[in-house]
Design brief:
CATH superfamily of the largest domain: Dehydroquinate synthase-like - alpha domain
Bound molecules: 5,6-dihydroxy-NADP, zinc ion
Structural class: alpha/beta
Number of strands: 8
Radius of gyration: 20 Å
Helix content: 40-55%
CATH class of the largest domain: Mainly Alpha
Length: 389
Amino acid sequence: MLDFSFISPTQIVFGRNAEDSLKDEIPKLGTKVLLHYGEGSIKKIGLYERVIAALKQANTDYVELGGVIPNPSLALVRKGIDLCRKEHVTGILAVGGGSVIDSAKGIAIGVPYSGDVWDFYTRKTEITTALPIGTILTIPAAGSEASTGSVVTDEDTQSKFHCGSDLIRPVFALLNPEYTFSLPPWQTAAGAVDMLTHVMERYFTNTPHVELSDRLCEALMRTIISNTPKALSNPNDYNARAEIMWAGTLAHNDLIGKGRQDDWASHDIEHELSAQYGVTHGAGLAVIFPAWMKYVHKVNIPRFIQYAVRVWDVPYTAGEEEETAREGIRRLEAFYVSIGMPIRLKDLGITDKRYEIMAEKAMRFGTLGGLKKLTKADVIAIYRQAEQV
Ligand code: NZQ
Ligand code: ZN
């Protein structure tokens, strides 16, 4: 196991009526709040009215900025920064999913910074301060409610970049699984793929002696795999939605990644699909991660066997190591198909092969990957692998 330092300071309030805790948590955001949200789902599910009532009850001054789109845009982040400065906002309340929370994180780091917020995402500068962020989560997927990251898209250059710091972990996250009953099947399934991939990006490692975090990863994966079909067949199944929601947070607050080298190449490779084609992040990962697995599995066959046996109950036969490893990958793909996810680029409607430019952009900050260090040629080969049956 590797040495590590870990802090996960987000106050989680979980369960039915979790949003009632807003009045107790809101003082952590200071005297004036930006209420940030997406394209309208929070109004349809009755959450918006409850939030406004809670803000009024707590005598909290607020301004609003809605309209965050999936794969959140840099333009709206800049608009939010201007608004917060003009209104002397002291903290941001993000109500929605990963896109809303990531947009809020962008605003939170941009307000106290004298330069352009994109500098953080292009790694020109580091995060040293941020406004506090609180969140009410409506879709379990990205894990941004307790993560260190923010991912924002500059639509002008079709660049989807990430920045991160412990300073942008939300100070509180209110998680009521009932607010996820309204999720369409596509978003439920894409969310499951994203959280599974957050686990697998950490699970596939060359670091030895990581028994505890392996077992935590396996528990998370098996929980997501068994509960997603239940939530899809009965969207109002509270227990299935609750298992998925808690798994989504634990998949990405980085508890399970400590003490081990992680990978993340597939995330960088997928972000180019989202940037170029506006693909839903989880759906893109359903295509890219299995392709990555097929391309790299020979680097560490024992780890892929362990995954196949412990996560998918594949029987292990001595002498058939490669076949056992490949069966685990096949079962992951079959699961994705069973929950309505794509597994090939053409399923996403992508046939025009912009691999060269996507590989170049994915590698703009250097080589990718931990299990196997990838070159540009490897990345192009993984896009090609994602074409094939
Ligand atoms: O905009 P609204 O109307 O709210 O609709 C949203 C959106 O269309 C809808 N939705 C959310 N809650 C709903 C609902 N519809 C009905 N009922 C509800 N309860 O779902 C759609 C998708 O929302 P979005 O926030 O985009 O989803 P998600 O949470 O999957 O976030 C995806 C973004 O997070 C980034 C991704 O790259 C992508 O941009 N990620 C962020 C990470 C992080 N910050 O740590 C890590 C991830 O790996 C990921 O990269
Ligand atoms: Zn992700």
